[in-house]
Amino acid sequence: MASSPASERNSTARPAPRPNTAFRRLRGRLSPGEFAASVRRAARDIGERVSCDARYIGRVESGEIRCPNYAYERVFRHMFPGRSLSDLGFAPRAQVRGRASRSCTGPQETPGTLPEPQDHRSADTYEESDVLRRVFMAGGAATAATLGSGPALPPGSIRSSRPVGAAEAAAVEEAVRSIRLLDDRHGADGLYRQAVQPLRAAYALLDAGAQRRSTSDRLHAGTGELAISVGWLAHDSGRFDDARSHYAEALATARMAGDAGLEAHAFCNTAFLARDAGRPREAVRAAQAAQVAAGQLSSSRLLSLLAMREAGGWAAMGDRSGCETALLRAQTLYARGPADADPEWMSFYGEAELEGLEAQCWSALGHWERAAHHARRAAELQDPHFVRNTALFTAELAGDLARQGAVEEAAEAGDRVLDLLDGVRSARIRGMLDTTAGVLAPTRRVPAVAAFLDRRTAGAAAA
């Protein structure tokens, strides 16, 4: 059958990607997630803001991104002084998509994340695809663009004149990254209600269906990950019933699609939620189910995290033996190092998170000194990019020190959390700080404690 003029134009406009072997060599032995973290750190060093993640690195190395936008170019030149774009394996900007006239103003790749509310970005650094804006945002999820500005249509209003395609699937994936980035920086409280609308739109796209199996698989995976991300926002803001519902939706999506990775992720978050909600046996069972699903994958780091979730369940049950067995398994698996098969969503699971989760286990078992040791290590090791986690681990440290009797040091840690809460809104962290304040209250005569308690009360009154 003869091809249509449109298909002929498409076939000539975008040649098949050629792997960027030069860029892959520069990554060396780092995993895509670890290399992405180094890109973000380099960006901060020069005052740039890029939302690099493992998938972005994969798209560069596969040749899908033939030329970075100007923000990424400046970061890469900072990381690899003296090297041109050609040295880094990229095509000349004027050749990308044959759009020389737009090469200085238009984006050259799909975004790493969507923009933050109230952020100012130039045309060079605003990494958003016009295609994604049209098909997904106009399709009923305008809030995905800013997670909070402008009205959004109900999901039932989505009507497509053509089958759902790769652009829609990509837009769902970008909504996931946007939510994760904003949560890392600001916490969940202000995001949950706005993030629900993109999720509804994603499910409406699933209902509309996709012609290609590969697109349908991407859409199922993206929608499931979006459900988990929205569930986490509910979880961290204390809406446990909502979180459980979202995680259950993600698990059902995973089962329908036969997606073992998504199933493992859904069970992982279910285990975490069950522990926080006071259902430790369910936490252990969910973590074990996640490990069964993850056994089909080749990610030791994922299995390590799931073992940590199991350890948290055992600790909440007061079972030290079960906890220590799971902790040892988690540490052994973590030591095997990163792999290309590590899921993108696990970018948070580094040495700091490993220490922080162990601190939570020892705290649940009542071993305050040991818990404080690991919490301090977690706070020290945490990448500043993850502001919320820095606040979380420091709040954990404050609570452990308070119970240990080191009240002045606990108050100092509590003050550091209050500093971080100026930019982070998390009901979970505030609840931890409230508990610590209750432990410290009988020692108000200590000046540092009194100052912390007064400051916390004043902050709560102003909120």
Automatic annotation (TrEMBL):
Cited SUPFAM superfamilies: TPR-like (SSF48452)
What are the coiled-coil residue ranges?
none
The record's region (Disordered) falls at: 1-20, 97-124
Extract the InterPro entries matched here. TPR-like_helical_dom_sf
In terms of superkingdom, the source organism counts as Bacteria
Where is this chain compositionally biased, Polar residues type? 1-13, 102-111
Q: Indicate what this protein is called per its UniProt record.
A: Tetratricopeptide repeat protein
The species this protein belongs to is Streptomyces meridianus
